[in-house]
Write a structure and sequence with these properties.
There is one protein chain. The chain is of the alpha+beta class and about 100 residues long. Helices cover about 20% and strands about 45% of the residues. It is built from two helices and four strands, in the order αβββαβ. Strands 3-2-1-4 form a four-stranded mixed sheet. β1 and β2 form a beta hairpin. The two termini are about 20 Å apart.
């Protein structure tokens, strides 16, 4: 059985902190449609996909995933200082960087 549960960033971050397990992270360049005036432009950014694997007492092996997209600033830089990726090391969580899918 496949179950989907949607949660916010804080819920995911709290689960990561409570489990103290490594988190897999995949970084992918992306472009997001953004309204500009009366039109739409594709704004570049970076998609960050996170996955946490743990044993749930009721459901067995479970994977939680979370995605955030960080858009470039006016200088074309992607600043990750407010991202979950920047918060995880402060919570002493190991990060496993992967290429490809989670």
């Amino acid at each position: 059985m496949y179950v989907v549960q949607i949660s916010d960033r804080n819920t995911f971050a709290n689960k990561v902190a409570s489990e103290q397990l490594p988190v897999r992270v995949v970084r992918t360049p992306t472009a997001i449609p953004v309204q500009q005036g009366t039109g739409v432009v594709m704004h570049p950014g970076l998609a960050l996909d996170y996955a946490l694997d743990f044993d749930d007492p009721n459901m067995g092996e479970t994977t939680w995933t979370f995605r955030e997209v960080v858009l470039t600033n006016a200088q074309g830089e992607v600043l990750l200082t407010n991202s979950l990726l920047a918060m995880l090391p402060k919570a002493n969580v190991d990060i496993v960087h992967r290429s490809g899918s989670l």
